[in-house]
Design a protein that fits this description.
Layout lengths: L7 E4 L1 E4 L2 E8 L19 H25 L2 H14 L2 H12 L4 H19 L1 H22 L13 E5 L15 E6 L7 H9 L3 E3 L12 E5 L4 E4 L3 H11 L21 E5 L2 H9 L4 E6 L13 H12 L6 E5 L29 H4 L3 H14 L4 E6 L5 H14 L4 E5 L2 H5 L1 H7 L2 E4 L1 H9 L17 H16 L9 E3 L7 H10 L3 E4 L4 H8 L4 H13 L3 H9 L4 H4 L3
Parallel strand pairs: 3-4, 4-5, 5-6, 9-10, 9-16, 10-11, 11-12, 12-13, 13-14, 14-15, 15-16
Antiparallel strand pairs: 1-8, 2-6, 3-7, 7-8
The structure holds phosphoenolpyruvate (PEP) and magnesium ion (MG).
The site of phosphoenolpyruvate (PEP) has 10 residues, from β10 and α15.
């Protein structure tokens, strides 16, 4: 805990709205693996070392069981599975055998767990997924043996502000939103896993928060996910802000009809990455799916999933939206989504490499087979299936993708606009396809030449950057110029920008027809859109376009939307 009581401010990038005060808990350092086959500690007997190992295993199992008893839902299931694994006799037996032959307890459990995890991985499917539990248990046992905090989200009785360098997907499986008040990371950007999970759970979050490495367990901090600020030892000003946030008006649930105050319709769709996601999106009244990330069917696989497997996966999503639009994005492998059988991991700059649609050049066939599976799944359901390719850069690519869709019998081909060249040539692209969907995560990365995964560049990697907004307008103008039947070719947004209610107003003002987002953002975006008419949205878009920086653009627009404060957004 810090010794001074003076407030100290730290600046970062606010990626999920909310203002709270709480004590800091630091994410423990990842464990360094023990040396391979390390011998028994000096003077220790094999019996004593075995007893130490058994005691550590029992302590870990008991702790996990206890936490499982107090958890609910997914968290309880994960904790129970891990507790069972910790109590598993086979694992302990093989580790004890290694100790008996003169290996230290740490190295023995490390090696024994490795062997179990390798066997599970080889079995594939559900069993392969259990390999992660074994490795988690192993880390907990080694931490217990070393007397250091277990890796993963800290366990605490009181709600706390979680500080970490950045969070990995596995860390967030047991993140309990009733315990964690806010997230602060020294690294990570607006599209980092931390940011995505924070928005999904509705937790205030600040990423790329420079200097926050100095925060210690127990420090009291104010976290402002709206303005991207952290204050250690908060004063009355921060207390008032946190109180105003705590007393915010409750957002009404989304009623399934996105529109502006004057009745202009703005369909609000959901981004979906699995069958379960689709069920949840439909339950949240999403008006369809604006981005189906099909990677869920491919990630973690060494080979291409076959036709039947793909059809079943897509069908599970389509069935949730009879009569509704489902926009399927074809496989987006490469860069932040590497796939062993498609991407070359020796590329010097993967974000500028063979990724997205471009993988069809290096490995032809995967895309056509995927389109055939999408067509068969579409045929079997009543969803209105549209198909789009990621990372399209030229009109020729758009034309070829449309031809591949036609060959597969898919009627509504489109492109994602993620590369500045596609935005600039939007009229030509949209003469060749039926719609465009702007992926603002990548469009921002490529417009600003700032890696979306780099926390140090988080300020540049902000969709409020006026240069990005200009390209969005250019794309919408391109859609208006390329007329389809019955009206202009629609341009939607499916990047994280659509989930920011203030930015959503700007996007509509720029000419965006539909917005697709994480289902949890639907109520906030719907509520704020209903406070403006089309003329106001256009005026706010012009304000943002005229700003000199992302910060200025955001501040100018937010100042004109008082309901953001009312709802604590
Ligand atoms: C985007 O780039 O905005 C997008 C929606 O795609 P992804 O984040 O999956 O790259
Ligand atoms: Mg993208």
């Amino acid at each position: 805990m810090s010794t001074t009581t003076e407030p100290t401010a730290f600046a970062g990038v606010g990626v999920s709205a909310g203002r709270v005060i709480g004590p800091v808990r630091r994410m423990p350092e990842p464990l360094a693996p023990p040396a391979d086959g390390a011998p028994l500690p000096d003077g220790a007997s094999a019996e004593a070392e075995s007893e130490r190992l058994t005691a550590a295993t029992q302590a870990v199992a008991a702790n996990l069981k206890e936490r499982a008893a107090h958890a609910t839902g997914d968290a309880a299931a994960v904790l129970k599975a891990t507790a069972l694994m910790a109590a598993d006799r086979t694992l302990l037996k093989s580790a004890t055998r290694l100790v008996a032959s003169g290996t230290s307890a740490e190295s023995a459990i490390w090696e024994a767990a490795d062997a179990v995890a390798t066997q599970l991985t080889a079995l594939g499917g559900y069993m392969a997924e259990r390999a992660t539990d074994v490795l988690d248990v192993r880390a907990r046992i080694v931490a217990e043996l070393r007397g250091v905090p277990a890796p993963g989200i800290p366990d605490a009785d009181e709600p706390f502000v979680l500080w970490a360098v950045d969070l990995a997907p596995a860390d967030t499986a047991t993140l309990d939103p009733t315990k964690v008040r806010a997230l602060v990371t020294s690294d990570g950007g607006p599209q980092s896993h931390t940011a995505i999970i924070a928005r999904a759970l509705g937790l205030p979050a600040v990423v790329a928060a420079t200097g926050t490495e100095a925060l210690a367990d127990g420090d009291l901090v104010f976290v402002d996910g709206i303005d991207g600020a952290i204050v250690r030892n908060p004063g009355s000003a921060e207390e008032q802000l946190a109180e105003a946030y705590a007393n915010r008006a409750e957002l009404p649930a989304f009623d399934g009809a996105g529109r502006l105050a004057d009745g202009t319709e703005v369909p609000l769709l959901s981004n979906v990455g699995s069958g379960e996601d689709a069920v949840a999106a439909a339950a949240a009244n999403a008006q369809g799916v604006g981005l189906l990330r099909t990677e869920f069917c491919f990630l973690g696989k060494d080979t291409e999933p076959d036709h039947e497997e793909q059809v079943a996966a897509y069908r599970a999503v389509f069935e949730q939206f009879p009569g509704r639009k489902v926009v399927v994005r074809t496989l987006d492998a490469g860069a932040d989504k590497p796939l062993p059988f498609l991407t070359d991991d020796s590329e010097p700059n993967p974000a500028l490499g063979v990724r997205g649609y471009r993988t069809d050049l290096a490995t032809p066939g995967v895309l056509s087979r995927q389109l055939a599976a999408i067509a068969d799944a579409a045929e079997a359901t009543a969803a209105d299936v549209w198909t789009m390719a990621p990372m399209i850069s030229t009109p020729a690519e758009a034309e070829r993708f449309a031809a591949l869709c036609a060959e597969a019998g898919l009627k509504t081909p489109g492109v994602m606009v993620e590369v500045p060249s596609a935005a600039v040539l939007a009229p030509q692209l949209l003469q060749r396809v039926e719609f465009a969907s702007i992926g603002t995560n990548d469009l921002t990365q490529y417009t600003m030449a700032a890696d979306r995964q780099l926390g140090a560049l988080a300020e540049l990697n902000d969709p409020w950057q006026p240069a990005v907004l200009h390209l969005i307008r250019t794309t919408c103008d391109g859609g208006a110029a390329a007329s389809g039947r019955p009206a202009p070719k629609p341009v939607g947004v499916c990047g994280e920008a659509a989930a920011d209610p203030a930015l959503a107003v700007v996007l509509v003002g720029l000419g965006v027809a539909t917005l697709s987002m994480n289902r949890r953002a639907l109520p906030a975006v719907a509520a704020i859109l209903r406070t403006v008419d089309a003329a106001t949205a256009r005026r706010l878009a012009d304000l943002a376009l005229a700003a000199g920086s992302a910060t200025e653009a955001k501040a100018a627009v937010r100042a004109e939307l008082p309901d953001l404060d009312r709802f604590g957004l």
